[in-house]
Write a structure and sequence with these properties.
Its EC number is 3.1.3.16. Keywords: Hydrolase, Magnesium, Manganese, Metal-binding, Protein phosphatase. By secondary structure, the protein is α+β, with helices and mostly antiparallel strands. It has ten helices and 16 strands. Strand 11 and strand 12 form a beta hairpin. Helix 1 crosses helix 2 and helix 3 packs antiparallel against helix 9. The two termini are about 40 Å apart. Strands 4, 5, 6, 7, 8, 13 and 14 form a seven-stranded antiparallel beta sheet that branches. Strands 3-16-15-9-10 form a five-stranded antiparallel beta sheet.
């Protein structure tokens, strides 16, 4: 557990210039949360006060905090009548020994991106399917390449800010065209916010996804896609000759949604490591307080709270998790949390 807490310290220090009274306190708290129930976890997290304090120097061997990691890229300009996203990211790999160092855009086998253009903001998450590891394939390579391609293509001249499914399809084709095959599969959810219209567009494949919170209620959610229990839709590139033996869903299978966003809305885009361990009720209780928050440092605190809560509950054998409840509906006994990589991209509409 100490290794995981050290990793939490590194991630949080890199992403923000403030902390719960101190990062040491946050790490100590996380260690005790593993034996708590969901609402006990929530109570402990919400009981901590946000203290914003500039740091003149970083602790030894820790990355320098970067404001650009918290907010949108500073090179993008906005007109006063346009809405936009202020976004932050937090997450944890399931196995810190396998992924000991922080890499931008990745938490274990999960990957993410966020970027901004003159027309739109774009965010995405992808969850590499861990079963490929038994074949000697790193599942994180597939998801990371897909998200990096999405980020790059969002800045192309023909990028359509109302077509995230096209962005996802082009990134997938880019992956297929590599001379050195990138094998594996992943779920993915990509969204764009058109700044002029204020409409959010999303394309989702599998069990990652998004929730939108307004006035203390969930007003929009992406559609989860499952072939059967714990077998989500996924983009895939199988080894040569193994196509018939590998579950593959094309980008055209993505579930699409459109939603008219308003200033003050809170959006969470996350992988199933969050949704399998944290109920919507708990997410609401944490994130309803983030409504109207435009300071990325303060918004980071809420992302950290969700990620820490998901991380702690995932290793709690007594937690009545959403995954446990879903398994029971399929007559499967799967008590406790579900250990997994965790990625949280949290955004506020301003």
């Amino acid at each position: 557990m100490n290794d995981y807490l050290d990793n939490a310290r590194r991630n949080i220090q890199r992403a923000m210039n403030s902390s719960y009274h101190s990062l040491t306190e946050a790490a100590s708290m996380a260690g005790t949360l593993a034996t708590s129930t969901g609402f006990q976890v929530l109570s402990r997290l919400m009981g901590l006060k946000v203290q914003v304090m500039p740091t003149s120097e970083s602790p030894p061997n820790s990355p320098t905090p970067s404001t650009a990691e918290l907010d949108l890229q500073s090179t993008t300009t906005f007109t006063p009548d346009q809405i936009r996203l202020v976004s932050v990211v937090c997450g944890f790999p399931k196995d810190i020994a396998m992924y000991p160092d922080y890499v931008k855009g990745q938490f274990g086998e999960d990957a993410w991106f966020r970027t901004s253009t003159s027309k739109a903001d774009a965010l995405g998450v992808a969850d590499g399917v861990g079963g490929w590891r038994v074949y000697g394939i790193d599942p994180g390579h597939f998801s990371r390449f897909l998200m990096r391609s999405c980020e790059r293509l969002a800045h192309s001249a023909d990028f359509e800010s109302t077509r995230p499914e096209q962005l996802l399809a082009r990134a997938y084709c880019n992956l297929l065209e590599q001379k050195q095959p990138i094998l594996g599969s992943c779920t993915a959810c990509v969204l764009t916010l058109n700044r002029e219209s204020g409409i959010l567009y999303a394309a989702n494949i599998g069990d990652s996804g998004l929730l939108i919170i307004r006035d203390g209620a969930i007003v929009c959610r992406s559609l989860e896609q499952q072939h059967h229990f714990n077998t989500p839709y996924q983009l895939a590139v199988p080894p040569p000759g193994q196509g018939l033996n590998v579950l593959t869903d094309g980008p055209e299978c993505a579930a699409l949604l459109e939603f008219d966003m308003q200033p003050g809305d809170i959006l969470i885009l996350a992988t199933d490591g969050v949704y399998d361990n944290v109920s919507e009720e708990l997410l609401l209780q944490v994130l309803s307080h983030a409504a109207g928050v435009t300071d990325p440092v303060k918004l980071q605190m809420y992302a950290n709270s969700v990620a820490l809560m998901a991380r702690s509950l995932s290793f709690n054998p007594n937690h009545e998790s959403p995954f446990t409840q879903n398994a029971r509906r399929h007559n499967i006994d799967a008590p406790g949390g579900k250990p997994d990589d965790i990625t949280v991209v949290l955004a506020s509409v301003v």
